[in-house]
């Protein structure tokens, strides 16, 4: 299954890049969301795929916790997810404000924003 | 008391000078001059030690690992310059204290001037190339603010900028040259290169390093073809011209050449470059001095000529020429500083520096006349002034020059005769000549204005009669430049010989030219206008304009302002770099397909992700795109669940939900989900996207999943329950082991929330206020 997941990661990156290269600022923000999906999945994948053994350690077998999935990348991704949410929320409000101030959502207008 | 302290005293004085001037506006010149005068005396007291060959050096580690140290040394050459800087500096401050009274904002002027003095003192006493360079740049910067002091005048601003750009450019070249020179040694101290010059002379960088250093020295010392900034710099107030442009800053290049001479003297490149550029500058400067009408411009061009002469004399590299260079250096500093101050006095009392509007001043200011005449005598090299000795030595050096002696002699003869002509013209036209109706009769300049010139002229006179008083000082300086030879004995009277004849002929030619001055000025002006109208200054500025417009064009290409092309550049180059750094294709990738009922779920997730993405890309409605994004997020959540990321899955579901909700709120206010790009742009972006996605897939496959867990994860697993009493390791990491990270995360969220609130709440700028 590794190959499938790796291809999915690449696919998500491709979608993200394609969206980031649009002129519409709404698509740009969705592209950012996709970029964080892809990167989170990449991190998760790099930590090794372990089926059905969450990173838990039971009180009874505290010393022998070897077979669980890798906890470290998961902790990192958890942080990234939350931060990603903050970025997403902020950038969405930023689009709203951008549109209110400039009256456009075309990023090419940004280069001569002084004229607006 | 030591050298570093003396420099820091001056820097400290620069800091308090504005306040001194504020508090004691009438006395500030005299008060401020006490410090440099005291330092002058201290440096004088060091002469006996230096004569005996005791080197006074200090060194403090700075960037010792790179061979850069805060080190200073006082040898003969440094001492000579240090005396000039502090001695003339003190006199200039007295002069400036009175002179600057008619100016606005003089407080800062004294700060600048003393700062320059401190930098110059540092420059001539430093014994580390990087330290020298640092002071070198300090002088450039302080000369910029001093030349542009009358910043309301656009001419002053332009002149200041020109001087800064030229000396700054030279400074950069100098830095590169000095680094190249010190590379073989790994040490920037003077000693390294002076004690074992072979290492540098035989290194590959010898030629480029030498050329760069010469550019640095030539720009600073206004050597042709960089000479034009000096006449322009006459926009500066007179005390600045008298200090920077006669005795100190323009001599910094000469100092550097003298300093490096013992290293380079065996090199033809060095000798020929100095001789050729010296001769050209000497004659060009003297020629352009002939027909100038502005007193300070006349002096500036004769300074250019004098600087050329000094370079030529160093390049000639004989005992005679180096002695002549040292004597002439002193002579020139004395008379030129005097004359610049007198030019300032004349302008102050009559309101003009234009030689055509001046005349008969000897009637109004007899003392000033006497002082000026003595200085002009020294400039023309007429006994008993020390200028005469300087000129005699110069002729002797040129007669004994090893190569091209005759040519150099003729050029030197002409340049000297021109200088004589200029001196006579200056003296006659200003102090006698036609009578001019002044608006109000000028009177004698005040004591403070005459003190400096009088002292300097007196020294010129005394040293002319008793030249050996100065030989003690010049001997060690000579040793620093040309260690193999001895200083030539200085005499006012050499007996009747060819040199005296040459001196006589020089004065004679000058006088004859003076007799036909009207005709000569007419001819020279005509020739300047029609043949030598190089307008280097204008060319320099148009060169700057061309450079700026090129830079603008380049910036417009690189900084085009289209975010998607910046992003494209980033993605393409990141992809290429990743490809370069990953290993060759590794087919040990695990293509195995072990059976598991969960596989179907993964296919479901994959289908959700792909379908959702296609909808996002093709959707015509923003809301649909947003929902599809959430759909993709759920697909990823399924993958997290299958591969044991329980906490991730829970968080992801919540985050996705919130994101879609917030997005739906915002989307309502946005215009239609518009498509701006054409088909071509889509295909192009698609190619970039597929390329980058491919690279990332490839990279993911290259990530060899570690067998088991690494040390860190094993630590967390082992200690999660025993130390932190938590069964969910991921949670324990977040709230316990890495709790500070989580705190940071919360701070980020809080900041994002504050940002969102302020973006939503703050009123838009009123359109009318734009």
Q: Characterize the quaternary organization of these chains.
A: heterodimer
Helix fraction bin of chain B? over 70%
Note the main sheet of chain A: none
CATH fold descriptor of chain A:
Helix Hairpins
DSSP summary: helix tally of chain A: 3
> Which structural class matches the secondary elements of chain A?
mainly alpha
How many strands in all of chain A?
Answer: 0
The end-to-end distance of chain A, rounded to whole angstroms, is 52 Å
| Main interface: chain pair and counts | A-B, 91 and 105 residues
Let me know the number of strands of chain B.
2
Rg over alpha carbons of chain A: 20 Å
Topology of chain A as a string of helices (H) and strands (E): HHH
Low-confidence stretches of chain B: 766-770
Distance, first to last CA of chain B: 61 Å
Instruction: State the major sheet of chain B.
Output: 2 strands, antiparallel
Please state the average pLDDT score of chain A. Answer: 83
List its traits.
heterodimer; A: 116 residues; mainly alpha; Helix Hairpins; 3 helices; 0% strand; B: 770 residues; disordered C terminus
Word description of this protein:
Chain A is mainly alpha-helical. Chain A has one domain: Orthogonal Bundle (Helix Hairpins). In chain A, 63% of the residues lie in helices and 0% in strands. In chain A, helix 2 runs antiparallel to helix 3. The N and C termini of chain A lie far apart (52 Å). Chain B is mostly helical. In chain B, 73% of the residues lie in helices and 2% in strands. A two-stranded antiparallel sheet of chain B has the order 1-2. The C terminus of chain B is likely disordered. The interface between A and B is large, with 91 and 105 residues.
């Amino acid at each position: 299954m590794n190959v499938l997941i790796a291809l999915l990661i690449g696919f998500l990156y491709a979608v993200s890049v394609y969206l980031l290269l649009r002129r519409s600022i709404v698509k740009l923000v969705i592209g950012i969301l996709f970029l964080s999906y892809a990167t989170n999945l990449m991190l998760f994948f790099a930590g090794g795929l372990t089926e059905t053994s969450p990173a838990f350690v039971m009180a009874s077998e505290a010393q022998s916790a070897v077979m669980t999935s890798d906890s470290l990348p998961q902790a990192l991704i958890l942080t990234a997810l939350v931060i990603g949410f903050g970025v997403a929320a902020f950038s969405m409000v930023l689009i709203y404000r951008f549109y209110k101030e400039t009256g456009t959502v075309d990023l090419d207008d940004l280069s001569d924003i002084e004229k607006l | 008391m030591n050298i570093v302290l003396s420099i820091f005293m001056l820097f400290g004085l620069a800091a308090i000078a504005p306040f001194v001037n504020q508090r004691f506006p009438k006395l500030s010149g005299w008060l401020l001059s006490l410090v440099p005068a005291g330092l002058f005396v201290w440096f004088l007291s060091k002469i006996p030690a230096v004569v005996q060959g005791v080197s006074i050096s200090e060194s403090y580690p700075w960037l010792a690992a790179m061979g850069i140290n805060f080190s200073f040394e006082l040898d003969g050459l440094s001492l000579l310059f240090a005396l000039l800087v502090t001695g003339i500096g003190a006199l200039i401050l007295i002069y400036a204290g009175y002179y600057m009274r008619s100016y606005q904002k003089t407080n800062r002027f004294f700060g600048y001037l003393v700062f320059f003095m401190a930098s110059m003192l540092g420059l001539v006493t430093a014994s580390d190339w990087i330290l020298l360079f640092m002071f070198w740049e300090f002088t450039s910067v302080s000369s910029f603010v001093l030349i542009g002091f009358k910043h309301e005048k656009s001419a002053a601003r332009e002149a200041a900028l020109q001087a800064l750009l030229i000396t700054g450019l030279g400074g950069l070249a100098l830095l590169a040259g000095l680094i190249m020179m010190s590379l073989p040694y790994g040490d920037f101290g003077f000693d390294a290169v002076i004690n074992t010059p072979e290492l540098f002379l035989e290194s590959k960088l010898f030629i480029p390093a030498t050329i760069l250093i010469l550019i640095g020295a030539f720009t600073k010392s206004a050597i042709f073809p960089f000479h034009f900034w000096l006449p322009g710099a006459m926009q500066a107030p007179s005390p600045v011209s008298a200090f920077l442009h006669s005795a100190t800053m323009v001599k910094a290049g000469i100092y550097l050449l003298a300093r490096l001479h013992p290293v380079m003297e065996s090199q033809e490149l060095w000798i020929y470059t100095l001789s050729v550029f010296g001769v050209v500058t000497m004659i060009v400067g003297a020629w352009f001095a002939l027909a100038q009408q502005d007193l300070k411009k006349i002096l500036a061009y004769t300074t250019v000529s004098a600087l050329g002469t000094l370079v030529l004399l160093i390049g000639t590299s004989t005992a005679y020429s180096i002695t002549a260079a040292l004597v002439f250096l002193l002579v020139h500093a004395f008379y030129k500083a005097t004359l610049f101050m007198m030019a300032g006095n004349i302008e102050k009392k009559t309101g003009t520096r234009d030689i055509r509007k001046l005349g008969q001043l000897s009637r109004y200011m007899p003392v000033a006349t006497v002082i000026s005449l003595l200085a002009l005598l020294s400039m023309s090299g007429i006994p008993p002034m020390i200028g005469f000795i300087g000129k005699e030595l110069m002729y002797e050096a040129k007669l004994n020059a090893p190569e091209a002696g005759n040519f150099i002699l003729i050029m030197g003869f002409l340049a000297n005769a021109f200088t004589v002509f200029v001196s006579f013209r200056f003296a006659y036209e200003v102090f006698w000549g036609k009578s001019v109706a002044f608006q109000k009769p000028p009177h004698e300049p005040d004591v403070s204005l005459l003190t400096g010139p009088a002292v300097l002229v007196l020294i010129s006179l005394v040293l002319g009669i008793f030249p050996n008083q100065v030989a003690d000082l010049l001997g060690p300086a000579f040793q620093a430049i040309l260690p193999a030879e001895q200083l030539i004995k200085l005499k006012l009277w050499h007996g009747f010989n060819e040199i005296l004849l040459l001196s006589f002929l020089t004065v004679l030619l000058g006088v004859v030219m003076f007799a036909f001055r009207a005709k000569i000025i007419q001819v020279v002006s005509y020739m300047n206008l029609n043949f030598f109208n190089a307008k280097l200054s204008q060319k320099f500025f148009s060169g700057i304009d061309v450079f700026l417009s090129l830079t603008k064009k380049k910036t417009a290409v690189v900084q085009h302002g289209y975010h998607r092309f910046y992003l494209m550049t980033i993605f393409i180059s990141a992809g290429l770099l990743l490809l370069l750094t990953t290993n060759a294709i590794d087919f040990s990738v695990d293509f195995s397909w072990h059976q598991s009922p969960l596989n179907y779920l993964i296919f479901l997730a994959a289908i959700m992700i792909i379908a959702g993405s296609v909808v996002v890309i093709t959707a015509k409605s923003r809301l649909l795109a947003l929902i599809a994004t959430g759909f993709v997020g759920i697909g990823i959540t399924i993958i997290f669940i299958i591969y044991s990321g329980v906490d991730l899955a829970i968080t992801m579901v919540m985050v996705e939900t919130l994101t879609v909700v917030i997005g739906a709120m915002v989307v309502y206010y946005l215009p239609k989900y518009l498509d701006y790009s054409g088909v071509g742009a889509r295909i192009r972006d698609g190619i970039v996207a597929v390329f980058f996605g491919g690279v990332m897939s490839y990279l993911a496959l290259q990530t060899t999943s570690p067998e088991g867990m690494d040390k860190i994860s094993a630590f967390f697993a082992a200690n999660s329950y025993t130390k932190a009493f938590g069964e969910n390791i991921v949670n324990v990491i977040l709230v316990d082991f890495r709790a500070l990270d989580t705190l940071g995360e919360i701070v980020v969220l809080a900041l994002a929330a504050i940002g969102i609130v302020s973006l939503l709440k703050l009123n838009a700028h009123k359109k009318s206020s734009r």
